[in-house]
Amino acid sequence: MADFLESEAEESEVDSEEEAKPERKKPKRKAVAVQSDDEEDEEDDEERLREELKDLIDDAPIEESASDGEDSDASQGPKKRKNSDDELDDRLEDEDYDLIEENLGVKVARNKFKRLRRLEDDDSDNEGNDDPDLEREVIAERLFVGGSDEEDERPSESQAPREAEYDDENEELESDADDFIVDDDGRPIAERKKKRKPIFTDASLQEGQDIFGVDFDYDEFEKYGEEDYEDEEEDLDEYIEDEEEEGERRRTKKGKPKRPSKKSIFEIYEPSELKRSHFTDLDNEIRKTDIPERMQIREVPITPVEEGSTELEDEAEWIYKQAFLKPPVSKADTQEARERSRRGSSTVVKIRQALDFMRNQTLEVPFIAFYRKEYVQPELSINDLWKVYKYDAKWCQLKQRKENLLKLIENMREFQLDKVMENPDAPIPDNMRLIKDEDIERLKNVQTPEELRDVHTHFLLYYSHDLPEMQKVQRAKEKKKELQEKKRLAREEAERNGEDPEEAAAAVDAAEPDEPDTVDVKYAVRSGPYELCRKAGLEPLVRMFGLSPEQFAENVRDNYQRHEVEQQPVPPLEAAANFGSGGPAEALRRAVYMCGVQLAREPQLRATLRDALRERATVTARPTQRGLKEIDETHPCFSMKYLKKKPVRDLTGDQFLKLTIAAEDRLLEIQISEQIEGNTSSSYLEELKQLYQKDEFAATVQAWNELRAEAVTLALTKIVMPELRRELHAVLLAESKEYVLKCCRRKLYDWLKVAPYESRVSDDDDEEWDANNGVRVIGIAYVPDRQHSAFACAVGGGGDMADHLRLPHLLYRRNSWDALERRNKEADMTALRRFILRIKPHVIVIGGESREALNIKQDVMECVQQLVEDDQFPRIPVEIADNTISKIYSNSIRGRNDFREYPETLREAICQARLLQDPLMEISQLCGPDEEILCLRYHPLQDHLAKEDLLEGIELEFVNRVNEVGVDVNEAVLTGRGTELLQFVCGLGPRKAQALIKLFKQTNQKLENRTQLVTVCHMGPKVFINCSGFIKIDTNSLGDSTEAYVEVLDGSRVHPETYEWARKMAVDALEYEDEDANPAGALEEILEAPERLKDLDLDAFAEELERQGFGNKSITLYDIRAELNSRYKDLRVPFRSPTAEEMFDILTKETPETFYVGKMVLASVIGITHRKPQKELLDQANPVRNDETGLWECPFCHKNDFPELSEVWNHFDAGSCPGQATGVRVRLDNGVSGYIHIKNLSDRHVADPTERVRIGQTIHCRVLKIDVERFSVDCSSKSSDLLDKNNEWRPSKDPYYDQESEDKDLRKDAEAKQTKERMQYVKRVIVHPAFHNISFAEAEKLMENMAQGEVIVRPSSKGSDHLTVTWKVADGICQHIDVREEGKENAFSLGRSLWIQGSEFEDLDEIIARHVTPMAGHARDLIAYKYYRPLGGMRDKAEEILKDEKAKNPTKIHYVISAAKNHPGRFLLSYLPRARCTHEYVSVTPDGYKFRQRLFDSLPALLKWFKEHFREPPPPGTPAQRTPAPRTPLPFAAMHTPAAHTPGPAYINTPYTPSAQTPYMTPFAATPRAPDFLAPPVPRPRPAPQPAYAEPADWQKAAEDWVRHRTTHARDTPPASRDRARPSRPDSRSTPRPDARSTPRQDARSTPRPDIRSTPRMERTPHGTPHGTPLGTPQYDARSGGRQSRATSVRSTPHTNTSPRSMSLGDATPLYDEN
């Protein structure tokens, strides 16, 4: 700290001339400079200061002494100081002001303040001990009091002296050197001498301090609580300012550089650090006050009850009803409900007595529980007393609030009375609601904060607008009353002095200043809807509703019409005619609102509804979309995932907290019912409406009843019930958290209730094994990682660490296959054995980190066994203990501070050993200011408790246990380990315990008797009475080391107030005569032979004490006798070894809540188990030979690689056959071994487990059985068990679980998933220019810009074995054709065969050529027809057109054709034969047009038939069987990539590259082909026949068919391609070659496509000869009257040598690529 001060402080440069004239020595001092209005006090203080300082001023300079390190620092003369001051005046620049403003957060007036200098003593004893209080006060003076303008101009002008306030209480603790502040002329402003005793009482320490000085003084902390500061805010500002002005007050030294002044704790430490360490002014005040610390720091401080008051009786009755009798809303704690039923009315008396002890006698709960048992038992346990203590705070708070509100109401009543009496004859205004006695009585009867809130809101509703005026009048009255009191006192004083009383009164009047009116409390101006209605004067209209809110509330409370509704004779609209400017209807609407608000604010109604809601409310829970996924069976809310109207009364434990947490995480939506059941019907609201209605049927009555019902509905649904539901939610949450807090306390109690370990080693002859001074423990801790060393440590009886041992190879196995590991393990075991032999522990404890602890325990037990055999060592117990606390300690700040140089594992071993010695003391080490006790895990939900509540619950548990055990202060001071325990002693706390320990450390004394708590520690009587019985003194250890009287009872639980009774009992038990009685000797003798106390009649003794006025002390006397039998007997539970189940939980870190039968877990496969075959089975074995491989197979292990039968028998004889597989061995994440029997591996029969699992694989399985002794579980991985549809294994669901809603959601989810799967598609790897990996919507969007007839092939949402072919029928109409694939190599490739309904295709080209293109052509014909209209198949529009045409030409039968949008691929044929339109569909198929179940090859044929048969009725809707026309087989290549069918604009120039995904085609003869589908064209000239090689007829027909379909392409292709595309010979003798091996197949890599937007049309003459029709040339048909038949298309691909079609090779012979 000295280095810190040296580096932080600045040094002032002092002119050497200043040191010339030493004036006098000014001792350092501490003062607080403040302004005072009392001049007489100021003069007295100055005189007193001069007197004190007179003898301390030494005018002679002090010589420097090298021996004692003193530096002479005489005070300088005024002139020199003025020079120095002038030099420092300019130091506070703008930057300094900016820094001050930044730290203070306020603007500071930038005046040049007068500079203050402080002369300081240079005594080496107090080098640098500047007074921080003085510095803070000066800076505050300068910053906030400020200098005048004159001071700005004349900074050297002297400053007026100010009064200084001092604290005279602890003068000896002040500094022995005085500082003082002088003005510019060197005159002192304030002076004070303070004496200070040496810091250390130890002579050697004091000598060291004199030589070296001190960097830190504990008394520095004491000084600051003893000063009288103005307020806390000023305090904070002062110490902040102190740092800003640090550079302006410097010490000067003669001839040497100036050392920095020492900073105060307020400068060095943050306020939060001071508060954390209890060094603030408030902490000092708590230390000095003679009231138990916990009572002082309670949120509502303990207050005594006035004499003669009945408050205690009232409070006891209130606490009994609220805390012990009133049931909670939920069933959070069933045990508490049982206790509630056992308590009787006598509990009230006990509560009253306990309250008297707490409030009037300031006795804490542990004292009452231990020393006032007669007054509270058996009704009240110590936890019940804590509840009384807690509810006392609630009562005091409620009482104070009631008194404040009562005063407000009485003031308002008085104000109303004054207002009415201003004009007594005038009627009471309509808008004034007079306060009645019933209102005040209702407030006095308030029992809960909720009821008080209701009364307060009711008051504000009616009177808030009068509050400002009432307050003003009240203030004037109080002022007048004060003036009258002053006049009365002045008159009395004048009468005593013989003066004129009236003149004195007039003087008081004249002296009274005219202060402007100031508003103390400003109430919010109400400007809401209700206030607007009130100002509009609607209250008379509201009263016409027939019932006041109070009357309606009584009706609801009694559940019948106690008060009849007063019916108005006029209708509502007529009654409202004179109210408001918005008309009667608007006035009624506002009156309904006003009435509803009044009803909603009625306290009696709210109380009744609150009780009804808490009794009948239900909770409904539904999962969110996120919750559906995240709430699985491991989630805490799994059993409550769906709740349907679960009554809040049936909520148990922490259920509601779990629901709330899930709701906060957006996993659940919980709702408290809006509608509650009525008393006789299903709706409570309807019942309430009936209580506010007139039971008549007249129209006027019914109209008013509707308004009343509307007002009731508004009050309940919009105002009251939402507020009460929020209130109920908070109550349920508080009860659930209270349950969790109780669980946390119970867990801590289970840790603290264990007594110190008692030695079980019995060796009476050897003193080394004596355990009277505590047991020696060896603790072993390890990390389950062989890379980290384990540690063993030896802890002595007093908890001190004696020695430790590093064991780097402790986790190795003795039977390891590695020889080095075995040697290392043996070396560790030898070292451990020697360590045990040297330490001679009473017990060895191992931290239960994992299952390795069992192996370590076995190794240690072997070491002990070897010592027993070799060295006659006693058999030392070896225990495994939970290491939860020791791990927290090893990582804690306290652990690191205690053993800074030790590794974490060693610290864990030390804590583990100490926990065995004394769990209470070791766990209390975490109860420091860092609050590390919160790091322990008490409950899974503890993090959702308020930190303050959890700390309070933990503290109460420690208080109970510590006072039960007692604390030895001397041991705590000696070892430093009991200081945390002392804070929990009754009457003490962290601050008082800290002061007590500090006192004994500084004085180096022992507490020799309890009386010294008063004489030495200056403990007040109240604190002494509370704590003395729980502070124990080991009187045996004091022995002859003290001359003070040793009271043997100081080592017992006997309280000092009953020492005389204990002595009397000892004397009576020994039957001494009164004159021979020596009470002290008798006590010692009776302690030697306590059995003699059994003969005493303690009941008679108790009666005598009661007769003498000591009260009932019967239980106390029995407690004294028990204590004399065994002083401070430990009442904790003796240590016991963990049970098998507890050991399982310790080593696996699981609990019954986290690991249970039926839990689904993850497990890793570690092996396969086999059953070795017996000899008889081997003899009867029948090996099997595999005919395919010729190898033999073992019938047991199914090994199948034996080439000879003899090797199978050798396999048996050698014993290498493992046998038949029986199951799978697995390991769970928590280290537990698992086993899955082969029958539980799968629902299907499994012969070989390796077919289903492999080593190292992670699988899901369910726990079927837990064997805690063997640390193993039986599991099942069967799908049926994992799914658990019958709920055999999953956690049981809540009785109100809404299974129906869950099933509905599951069905909806499944449907949505299926829909999503249908909408989704698997991206495919298909290389085809028409294929796109796009969705349905994207395909339709792409089709918008494509020509009619274009094709897109895309993935199907039906799955990876389907494709969808989309082609454009007309603008805005696309047909989607499903294609099923078969023979797929994988999910992404194209199937070898493609199916559309019943037709098979070999690839996409064939589909486009044979299926889509014909349909597109037929559709184009229809679209190009003269009577086609783009109506989208809308019948009404077609009818309009037909009727218009019919009107123009009635003699004709008109018809129109339109593409049907709702039926893509169909066209609507609408015609008007007479007056009624007829609509029929024409379907486009690859074979032609389908109409009335007939097929037509061409449009003219269709129309001709239609015109001839339109009068015939349509046939039945059954589809006719389609008979395909005779087919001519197409050549192989005709199915591959026809040039006319490549995709649209985006692929105009894209070559087509077939890939392996396009399957090879089957022979064409096996593929059915659609019939000839194009209309016969007009004959055109044929090309000249070319000689060609003749081939068989099949190939000839194929070639002719191919050419017939492709000749129209000639015009659109380049010449070369056109030549190749034409057939070489037109007659049947010119056929392709039949040799398939020489026929080129589709092996093309690309298909060049120029941007030619024309679709060649292949037509036949009536003789079947193909002709090509050039694009743009009109074609005429005799049947159609001669018209252009086709629309323009984009599909035209040039033929290349690599195109999969016939190619001209000079001899015009078509070739087919078979590759």
Overview of the molecule:
With 1715 residues, the chain is an alpha+beta fold. It is flat, with a radius of gyration of 52 Å. The longest helix has 54 residues, at 699-752. It is built from 61 helices and 34 strands. Helices cover 41% and strands 10% of the residues.
Task: Tell me the total number of β-strands.
Answer: 34
Helix content bin: 40-55%
Tell me the Rg in angstroms. 52 Å
Largest sheet: 5 strands, mixed
Topology:
Blueprint: H1 2-8, E1 32-34, H2 39-54, H3 78-89, H4 94-104, E2 117-119, H5 132-145, H6 149-153, E3 163-165, E4 180-182, E5 188-190, H7 203-212, H8 219-224, H9 232-244, H10 265-268, H11 271-276, H12 281-288, H13 293-296, H14 311-325, H15 334-342, H16 346-360, H17 365-371, H18 373-376, H19 382-421, H20 437-444, H21 449-463, H22 467-496, H23 501-511, H24 529-535, H25 539-543, H26 549-558, H27 572-575, H28 584-600, H29 603-616, E6 618-623, H30 625-630, E7 643-647, H31 655-664, E8 668-672, H32 684-690, H33 699-752, E9 777-781, E10 790-795, E11 801-807, H34 819-839, E12 843-848, H35 852-871, E13 878-882, H36 884-891, H37 893-898, H38 904-917, H39 919-924, H40 947-965, E14 967-968, H41 969-975, H42 979-982, H43 990-1003, H44 1012-1015, H45 1021-1027, E15 1031-1032, H46 1035-1038, H47 1059-1070, H48 1079-1088, H49 1098-1107, H50 1114-1125, H51 1140-1148, E16 1160-1171, H52 1175-1179, E17 1184-1185, E18 1192-1193, H53 1205-1213, E19 1220-1228, E20 1233-1237, E21 1258-1267, E22 1272-1276, H54 1279-1283, H55 1299-1319, H56 1336-1343, E23 1351-1355, E24 1362-1370, ...
